[in-house]
Amino acid sequence: MQRFLFGGIFLLFFSLSAFSQTSVSTDNSSLLGFASDDWTFFHNTEDDVVFIDFESINVNLHDIRVIDEKGELVLEEPLFDLPVDAIYELDLKNLPKGEFQVQLHTFNEQVITKSLSH
Questions:
Q1: Up-side HSE of residue 110: CA atoms within 13 Å toward CB?
Q2: Tens of pLDDT, residues 76-97
């Protein structure tokens, strides 16, 4: 009888503690694309490569453009054939040193811009 009573109390305690777990939402749908999300771009300065996480961007991308400090287009590549969860590697080794703007163009003509130096 005593085992039955302790077993019942143990089950009651265990079920209450299991249901009292706090859940944390990781939904990023309220963020405004990557204008406020610093994890979308990761600049590996050692290898001079910029990694761009497409999964954290909530829009479909058409192309990427790199503009130098003079406003000249130094690189343009299409993005529409890449998966939406890809991590894009932008190699800066062949570009001259200086300040750049990385522009991600969407299909609905939005431009998402990130400034970086190389």
A1: 12
A2: 999 988 888 889 999 999 888 9
